[in-house]
Amino acid sequence: MTTDTRVRILIAAAALFARKGFHGTSTREIAAAVDVRQPSLFHHFASKQAILAELLDRDLDPTLGRLRRLRASTPDPASALYAYLLEDIAELAVSPFDARGIYNDEVLEDPGLRPQRRKRRALHAEIRELVEEGIESGVFRSVDPAFARRAISGMVLDTIWAKESDDAGDLADRPRQLAEFVLRGLLRDPAAIEAVRQRALETGDR
Amino acid sequence: MTTDTRVRILIAAAALFARKGFHGTSTREIAAAVDVRQPSLFHHFASKQAILAELLDRDLDPTLGRLRRLRASTPDPASALYAYLLEDIAELAVSPFDARGIYNDEVLEDPGLRPQRRKRRALHAEIRELVEEGIESGVFRSVDPAFARRAISGMVLDTIWAKESDDAGDLADRPRQLAEFVLRGLLRDPAAIEAVRQRALETGDR
DNA sequence: GTCTATACTGGGATAGAC
DNA sequence: GTCTATCCCAGTATAGAC
User: Fold this and answer.
1) Is A101 on the interface with B (CB under 8 A)?
2) Which chain A residues are within 8 Å of B156, Cβ to Cβ?
3) With contacts defined as CB-CB under 8 Å, which chain A residues touch B92?
4) What confidence tens digit (pLDDT) does each residue in B29-42 have?
5) Does residue B19 belong to the interface with chain A, where contact is any CB pair within 8 Å?
6) Nucleic acid strand D: bases within 7 A of protein CB
7) Which of A104, A151, A174 is opposite residue B104, by nearest beta carbon?
8) SS3 content of chain A, % helix, strand, coil (to 5)
9) Quick check: B154 contacting A, CB < 8 Å?
10) CA atoms of B200 and B81, how far apart (whole Å)
11) How many separate domains does chain A show?
């Protein structure tokens, strides 16, 4: 018994969205990739947009959950951020759904994707709060939290684009590299990074 | 005498591409924004893609030029990178052409945009080399240069997205914040950042 | 250099049989 | 749950008058 057609549609659509964008991908292409006829898609999803909505949900929901859990269980904002970045990048790397095409902000603008847009905002707010906590407690430099949040999102996004790029480098080490880079940019005392990583790994492992 | 229609098309198209993406923007919308009929566009540009191509050229050519000039005139890679980031972000902020929509990699894949794709690769290569030089000379930590290049691109891209966002923070200070963040992530000795900034400003000012 | 009219294509989605 | 057939619209681009 092969994988659920519904899931195969999601996987194929995600891959195509990543390569050609949402608008640049036709339902016919998705259908061809799944090896069904184009109208069959509409038995599983009400619309092309509904496919995207489910992809977004399947990425945003667990990500938001992870971050909130980490924030609750890890008092130190620096370690929480470090652990979040590790987990997020690692998760993106192993997910069957290629996330590279679903966060082009243009597409999230559509009124039909309001719930997803709200979740994404919530995620951004959580990260931003984490940065603010770090600044208030004095561990982070006093950067503009909005800027830091954007820088982090941009790096994460662009890092996952490296999935199959030619100049990808050592992919397995990417989560750590990213977390390290971000924390170094934020920490008032970069030497503290060893301790931060240590605490982050402790919380992550249990 | 109002601005050249050709230029007004470029400005309007860039703004729409930024908001809705290339595929998500129709030539009708562009025409409406310029207040001409849709077929009139084709007097100025051979195709919709040609509009995008020119936008890319107008951004890539000067950017690549600036970076190469800086590399030639600034022996210290750390300062060169700092100066480049300052200039690049500042330039993006004042450009009449909104650059946010033109670098969705999906769209650069089209065979018709090969020249632009090549230029972009060249730009990436230059940045990567800058990072490599910094590592070889011992000023930068030994990060994966491909990763660093991606992180930088991602941050720049996402930073310009902040142009009119609600949580934009202090926009005027963004170039410095970005350059500082990146250099802190790279420098082996973060305390050296003062000297790096100093040298960068000297080269930039003349 | 801009217009109107229109050709042509491809895309999303539905109807209804099996 | 998948198929064939088909509708309908939106999109790019061209022709040719002014």
Assistant:
1) yes
2) 154
3) none
4) 999 999 999 999 99
5) yes
6) 1-6, 10-16
7) A104
8) 80, 0, 20
9) yes
10) 8
11) 1
Closest-CA distance, A26 to chain B, in angstroms, reads 11
Number of A–B residue contacts, CB under 8 Å: 140
Q: Does residue B165 have a pLDDT over 90?
A: no
- A164-192 burial by CB neighbour count: b if 16+ within 10 A, else e? eeeeebebeebbebbbbbbbbbbbeebee
Please check whether residue A46 lies inside any domain of the structure.
Answer: no
Structural domain boundaries, residue B95: 55-203
Altogether, the residues listed in chain B come to a count of 206
A154 to B149: CB separation less than 8 angstroms, yes or no = no
**Given this model, what pLDDT does residue B3 score?**
78
Whether A45 is covered by a domain: the verdict is: no
Q: Choose among A156, A158, A148: nearest CA to A128.
A: A148
pLDDT at B7 over 90: yes
Instruction: Dump pLDDT digits (tens) for B94-152.
Output: 999 999 899 987 889 889 999 999 999 999 999 999 999 999 999 999 999 999 999 99
| CB < 8 Å from A in window 165-184 of B | 165, 167-170, 173-174, 177-178, 181-182, 184
CATH of the domain at B184: 1.10.357.10
Q: Straight-line distance from CA A51 to C1' D5, in Å? A: 25
- pLDDT tens for A139-166 read 999 999 999 999 999 999 888 877 666 5
DSSP B163-182: GG-TT---STTHHHHHHHHH
| pLDDT value of position A204 | 61
Residue A107 clears pLDDT 60, i.e. is over it? yes
Rounded alpha-carbon distances, angstroms, from residue B69 to B75, B83, B206: 11, 11, 13
Q: Which residue has the higher pLDDT, A204 or B62?
A: B62
> pLDDT at residue A2 above 80?
no
Give the CA distances from residue A159 to residues A35, B102, B118, B198, in Å, rounded to whole numbers and listed in that order.
31, 19, 21, 30
Q: Per the domain annotation, does A113 fall within a domain?
A: yes
Asked if the Cβ of residue B25 lies within 7 A of any atom of strand D, the reply is yes
Q: Answer for B43: CB within 7 Å of strand C.
A: yes
Asked whether residue A28 is assigned to any structural domain, the reply reads no
Q: Is the pLDDT of residue B205 over 80?
A: no
Closest-CA residue of chain A to B179: A185
